[in-house]
Amino acid sequence: MAPATENPFAVLTLIAAPAVFTNASSVLALGTGNRLARVVDRTRVLAQELHSVGKRDQATDLWVNHLGRLERRGSLLVRAMSFFYGSIAAFAAASLVSILGAVLAFSQYRLSFEVLSFISFIAGTVGFIALTVGCTLLVRETRIALETMSDEVDLAKSLLK
Q: What angle do CA 91, 95, 98 make, to 5 degrees?
C-alpha cells in the first residue's frame, strides 16, 4: 500500500473531511442563533404579559417558572454557539494545516510534514469534541423546551375542565 503522501485521494480526504465538519458546524451555529432569537422573543412576550397582569394566579406562576427556564435555555444556547464557533475555527485550522502539509509532503521537508499532520489531527480532534459538546447542549436545551411545552399543555387542559 502506498503511503498517504503519494496518494492524491488521501490528501484530498485529509482536506475535505475538516471542510465537511466546518460546514456542519456552521449550519448548527446558524440554527442555534435562530433558536436563541426565539428564546429572546418569548422572554420579552412573557415579561410583558407579567407586567400587565394585576393578580397572581396559576397561569402567572407558570409564566414566572417559564422565565427561569427561558434564561437557562438562553444560557445553554449561547454556550452551544460558542462551542460551534470554536469547532468552526478548529476545523478551518485543520483544513489549512492539511493543505500546508499536503504541499510539504512532496518536498524535502519530511519532518515538517509529520509535525503538520499531528497539528492537523489535534485541530480536527478539538473541533470534533467542540461539535459534540455543542450538540449535547442543544439536546439539553430541547429537553427544557419540551418540559415547558408540557407544562403549558397541562395548564390548558386544567383550564378546560
A: 135
Helices (H), the chain: 8-52, 58-105, 110-160
What is the rounded CA–CA span in Å between residue 72 and residue 47?
15
Question: How far apart are alpha carbons 92 and 124 in whole angstroms?
Answer: 9
Give the SS3 label for residue 35: helix
Output Rg (C-alpha) for the chain, integer angstroms: 24
Do 126 and 92 contact (CB within 8 A), yes or no?
no
CA distance 130 to 150: 30
Indicate whether this model's pTM tops 0.90: no
Give residue limits of the domains in the chain: 16-160
pLDDT tens, residue by residue, 14-64: 667 777 888 889 999 999 999 999 999 999 998 888 888 777 777 788 888
CB 4 within 8 A of CB 107: no
Q: What are the grid coordinates assigned to 9, written together?
A: 485521494
Residues counted in the chain: 161
